[in-house]
Amino acid sequence: MLKTTDTIVPSRNAQIQWTHGVYEYGSTKPVSLHDSAEAARTEAHRLTYSPDNLEEHRGEQWPLVQYTSSSRATSSRDGVQLGQVYAIASEKLKPLSTKLKRLATKAAKLGIEPPTWTEVGIVERERQERDGLGVKRFWTQRLTALAVSSTTVAVAGYQFVATLEGFKGEDGEYRNVLRINPSIEDSLIPHEYRERGPVCDHCGTERRRNQTFLVRKAEDGSFLQVGRNCLADFIGGKDSADAARLASYERDLAVALADGEGGGGYASVSMSTSILAFLSTVATHVRNSGWVSRGAARIDGGQATADEVLLRLHPVGAEQEQEAATLAAECPVEERDTAEAEATLEWVRGLDVDTDIGDSDYLWNLYATCSLGTVQPKEAGIVASAVAAYQRHLGKLRQRERQQSLAETSRHIGAKGDKIGTKLTATDKRKGANLLAPIPVTLTRIGGFEGHYGYTWILQLVTTDGSVLKWFSSRNTDSQGESLTEGEDYILTGSIKSHGDYKGVAETSVTRATLTPAAAAK
Ligand SMILES: [Zn+2]
Questions:
Q1: Over the chain, what is the mean pLDDT?
Q2: How far is the CA of 346 from the centre of ligand 1 (A)?
Q3: Residue among 416, 435, 415 nearest 425 (CA)
Q4: Ligand 1 centroid to 200 CA: how many Å?
């Protein structure tokens, strides 16, 4: 994947079609694709909103499209498609090409079209990191743009959809973790396969199997669950090891490419950890340095929270032991972290399968993995994300409560055209406008979006008696030229533009406003 802020420089003769997912307002699925076909240096798009923060802005008066933080590009040369473009770190090019060669040999043996890979240019990525003294440094990383072609694996009219890894939870219920093939749309998988036991539809038996495969008939879209031992027989003409390789081929390729991108890397531990100890340590790290998913670590660099915690709990070798000891001394697990972990587990395990989880395969896998008492390294990434997911959930609840209390207190202020703390012109007076005194406010939220005319800041201000004012501003500075800060008190002057209503909260829009820090106004 590329970042929307990357700069792509295609090599000679190569064309790179860069596609940003455009999200409809309030949705987390792309509704259309916005092409920025570029043969030359591409102008970087600035990230405004990601699916993660869309929810809190749902229904507000933002623009109708949103950009995602990561995007896809494909490449072609002389009209021939070369495949999807990946940004590969230079030190990972060699190991990746070894892996791809191995996959190509495997593909040829299995009778499917082998992947091809071609260098098509350079990706420049802005990075920032803290040096040993804690000072932020900015630098530009040069990555290789590698176009990789791959095929969808289909055998005897069936496509491999997912590997189901099943286990019994602490409550004795059977649940599957879905490892979905990257070419499959998550939402395609019927919910019944989340909790279906280790059944083989091919031989009709149910017995202890850790792994089953979900296949879909291309003809009518129907699904079948097949046991590992029956897979060879099911697809015919392959031995069982080859059949399993075929089933996991697409996923293996995707994992190899993901490992080759950016930096990071999985901790290679094989033991399991108590889920409460694991999540308590995750809570500690999130509190100290924020949440970093494995996906974000791959693209942005740095170490994923889950891997940092695995390293801390199961260091391998002297160097890791040293690092683990430093981490434990610098950010000890506190009582509040364990409380947070317990509350997180209670929330995840209490999710309602129909109303809370619904179509979300992410939430399902989180629910399934958290129903166990232990964490395996393979599941560490998703289990660790529970803490951040719970915090987002709490944030939404708080936001809703705040909105409810504002709905009760907020009243429209003045009338359209009225001036706040400035002067009435002759025209104002003719129109019957009034002059209001400057209004003390608290800046409660700063948002914004990238529009055709540059960046627009959306500022929410609340008066001392709980009325809401909104200002669409081209700058985010106060009267002293300092950056505005959420939670700070200001004195507002300007004019009243309109009266509106959002989710039952009366809002007064202002224009040509100035915010003077309350401290400076005294
Ligand atoms: Zn079977």
A1: 79
A2: 37
A3: 435
A4: 4
Contact 246, 238 (CB under 8 A): yes
Instruction: Label each residue of 140-153 as H, E or C.
Output: EEEEEEEEEECCCC
Query: Ligand 1: distance of its center to the CA of 89 in Å?
Result: 43
Domain boundaries, given as residue ranges, for the chain: 2-149, 154-260, 273-394, 419-521
Alpha carbon of 174 to ligand 1 centroid (Å): 19
Residue 359: band (very low, low, confident or very high) from pLDDT cuts 50, 70, 90: confident
Kindly report the CATH class assigned to 419-521: mainly beta
| Helix (H/G/I), strand (E/B), else coil: 433 | coil
CA of 238 to the centre of ligand 1 (A): 15
Distance separating alpha carbons of residues 32 and 48, to the nearest angstrom: 17
The model's confidence at residue 66, banded by pLDDT at 50, 70 and 90, is very low
Nearest CA to 407 out of 465, 466, 472 is that of 466
For residue 268, the CA-to-ligand 1 centroid distance in Å is 33
Residue 101: per-residue pLDDT: 93
Residue 119 pLDDT greater than 60, yes or no: yes
Model pTM score = 0.59
Read off the pLDDT of residues 151-171 as tens digits, 9 standing for 90 and up: 778 777 888 888 888 877 777
Expressed in angstroms and rounded, the spacing between residue 157 Cα and the centre of ligand 1 is 18
Report CA(229)–ligand 1 centroid distance (Å): 6
Q: Beta strand 70-77 with 80-88: parallel, antiparallel or unpaired? A: antiparallel
Question: How many angstroms is it from 165 CA to the middle of ligand 1?
Answer: 16
Distance CA 402, CA 247 (A): 49
Residue 102: CB atoms within 10 A of its CB come to 12
Measured in Å, residue 203 CA sits from the centre of ligand 1 at 4
Measure 205 CA to ligand 1 centroid, in angstroms: 6
Cα of 366 to ligand 1 centre, how many Å? 28
pLDDT tens per residue, range 78-93: 878 888 888 888 878 8
